[in-house]
# Entry
Amino acid sequence: MRPARLRIGRYSTIILLGLIIAFPMLYLLSGSLMSFSDIAQYPPRLFPTTPIWENFAQAWSYLTPRTILNTFAFVGSVLLIQLAICLPAGFALSKIKFRGSKVVFGLFLVPVLLPTNLLLIPTFVVTLQLGLIGNFFGLVLPIAGQASVGVLLFRQFFSTLPDGLIDAARIDGANWFRTFYSIALPLARPIIAAYSVVTFLTAWNLYIWPLLAAPGEQTRVLTLALAPLATTQFSNISPSVGFAAAVIAMVPVLVVFVVFQKWFTRGIAGTGLE
Amino acid sequence: MTVLETKRGAGAERRHPRSPLRKKTKYRKADAASAWLLLAPALVLFIVFIIIPTIVSLGLSFYQWDFFDTPAFVGFANFAKLATDSAAWNSLGVTLLFVLLGVIPTIAIGFMLAVLINANMPGVGVLRVLYFVPVVLSVAVSAVLWAFIYDSRQGPIGALLRVFGLPPVDILNTDTLALPALVIMMIWLALPIVIILYLAGLQRVPEDIYAAAALDGAGPWRTLWSITWPNVASTTFVVAILQIVNYVASSLDVSLIMTNGGPLGATTALSLYAYRQAFSNQDVGYASVLSVVQMVIIVAIIGLGRLITRRFSR
# Structure
């Protein structure tokens, strides 16, 4: 009897605190469908009287399809480049014995303590000198170059593959590239999934680098379009339309998160070391 | 340190290090060539966009430069400027406030919530989603939301004040309230990741310790404090580092979007001050000095933390 009561108490606490934590976000969803009078109503309403889908049409035209496409292109490029460079590097560092491997490994450890915001200014300087500020390459490459977490994570994973497996492939005459591509890579699927979800989320939500590197209309990403709404939404457009824009920007990550939640939590736990 | 790391990492370490097999292996030239080819793409991008900027950052702190003309060597002048720049010292105080107000509550709340939802009961797996879901929000999206929450005319807090007949407070424009308001949003944003890390840490605490504690008659609070908390110390260390970095560096996005450093510099942390020096004042050398200072602060806090935890664990 006592454990049952304890259990009910714990359930209700979990639900209550969970709702409190999720509340601002649930309110964002609900508010995005409210009319101006609903959202300004007093005391505040939890749900719209009638859902105003028109808010989303307005938000869509405010954000522009171009910005949404830019964001997908930016995030997709970062993800593909990171996988293409980090996987082979992690494999080489874990399975091939060669002079200098320790030095390279140490090099990848350097940025573990350096948050990217601290390298903002010098990264801007280097990108500027390369003539890449203001275009898509300048937007993507410096972020794709933040490879240390990926390299270290994949190195860690590949080093758990039994050496016998790799040796067998080598004895059969496969070169290192083939061994990597047909033996190691298929086994890495789970860790690739976990890393991809985390990387997708991080890149999708970046703000400052896109602001510095490519703020122009042609290259602008969603976060840049959204940020001004935090300070001017009350004069320019209805808060509901601002909410709708925020929801549009959030939906792709929300979908990725819900579908790949298992991989996401593993990815966070795995990269948490850094 | 984490699920993936220890489960797989520990096994891997046991398998190879310093086994006799390894000593016999000779480096082969063909292997080396393949290895460098596999590493090359990662190394090129990494060196150009991480290693070189790190070096440039240290180097530029000795120069006067505006992004365009030839940099002029000025020795320690930028560091000397820091000594007399009271705005910089104010922003250093703001940075420390972000860390002080943010880090400990984030760790404490995250730990408690992780313990709460680390329950082996049906349905909890689904309910956990409620706790994880703010993780999908960018600073930009959550700024739109929280700016409304804090808005004196339309937001819920303003409404609440009116219910009690109190005058409206423009939270983000009040110098004493703006920073705590930003910190509250940052805690909310950081919680999912902290909870996930603690959940991973809690999975590794052996069940029989709890059984033993229960046999000894330890109550839930005592178990929490004397059994659970010490057993996730390594997770706490990781979380603390991540959060210190978060509040020193990532407060830049938050204050840039929500308050633009105001009111009266109350939310201008070093990161934002450095950003302004570089991109508004075009004083790249001085901005580099400020970045170096932030680097030193992070390393110093982490070093101090390590020293304290070592002292206590012995």
